[in-house]
Every structure is written in C-alpha cells, then in structure tokens.
C-alpha cells in the first residue's frame, strides 16, 4: 500500500455564536450552523480537514481452463475430455488448491452424427505464483484441445473493506497531527475530539484508463491495472486546552 501526504486546512475557532466557516478546495467559504449543545458545552476549539490516499493490489485471481473435443461417438468424446480434465484437476491438487475454490462444468452437444463435449474448470487463486505455475504446466503438457485463458484479478470484499477503513483512519490521524502542531505553535495543548466526519471518499483503478492500451497485458500489468486506489477526506474538531506549565518536583 502507498500513502500520500495529507492536504490539511486548520482554523482556530472561538465558540461564540452558533456558526463556523469551512473553506473548500476552490478557496470558497461556506457557513454551517453548529448544534446548539455544541456551542454551549465547548470551549475554544481547532477545526482541521485531513486527506489520505492508499492503494492495494488484488488479492484474488480467477483462472479458467477449458477442454473441448468432438468425436463420432459419445463414449469417445467423453473419454477424451475426461482424461484431460483429470490431469487438470490432479495438477490443481498438487498445487494445494482447495476443492471449494474449484468449479467444474460439463456440456455435451450433438450435431448430426458428431458429438461435441466441453468442460470448463474455473479456479480462484490467492497464491499468484501457484496460479502461474499451474497455467504454465497445462499449456506445456496438454494439446490444443485445452485452452488456458488469461487470469482475471480482483479484490475480495474483506480486502476492500479493510482498505476503506485504513484510509479513513489515516486521514483522521493526519488531521490530528496537524491540529497538534497548530496548538503547539500557539502554546496550547490539544484536547479531546469533538467531532469526526468523513466528508468524502473516492475509489478508482487503472482498469478503464488502460483497457485500450494493453489488449494483451502481462501478469504484472494485469495486477497493476486491477490495483484499487481509495482516498478519504475528513473534518475533525478538537478542544484546545491551556498547556500545563507546572513541573513535577522530584
């Protein structure tokens, strides 16, 4: 994962009245009404906005392997496809691929007096090195009746949820660090947080931008294209406390 420096705006606000001002990226200022209980209970405060950006590569990949053949008899075509299918499944077992991550479908069709059979194996990998090894072995050992499609990389729901949480926490930490620096500069101490709000978030990848540029991407290019970026922009308000200048006597 990679992070970018936060862009932070800070304002020292004496809580007089019931409004505060917020400056956006275009230099415009808007006035927002503050809750009545907030102006009554808060002392001086510092308001900051913080931003953060993180990225994460895909943690899953789907590999599709298809076997097809045609024969004059259904037994012949079934035996032909089944032998290759068993070799594929054996190769997966040797690479410790779990059965729950493997899906096998079979279709038999007849046209005139010819029988056509196709079997497809769809495998979800978390180990990309094992995936590449399986792909290389099948292409090398099996004939043209077997087709190994390029891997499709994606993110699990757990991976994306973790990324969203991490980037929001980083944005808040960036805002807190800036607020602490501002208070220190003014000879004050940073107090407890009064309000934490994620104002916006954004997710994107290079998939769309590079779709036409890389029609036959390598594995590393495919991983880079599928990498997801997430940004978060937060608003945080802290109490300002007088700095304790008393020193403990030993």
Automatic annotation (TrEMBL):
Location in or out of the cell: Cytoplasm; Nucleus
UniProtKB keywords: Cytoplasm, Nucleus
Segments passing through the bilayer: none
GO biological process, alphabetically ordered: immune response; positive regulation of canonical NF-kappaB signal transduction
GO-annotated cellular components: cytoplasm; nucleus
Main location: cytoplasm
Family: Belongs to the IRAK1BP1 family.
Protein name: Interleukin-1 receptor-associated kinase 1-binding protein 1
Annotated source species: Megalops atlanticus
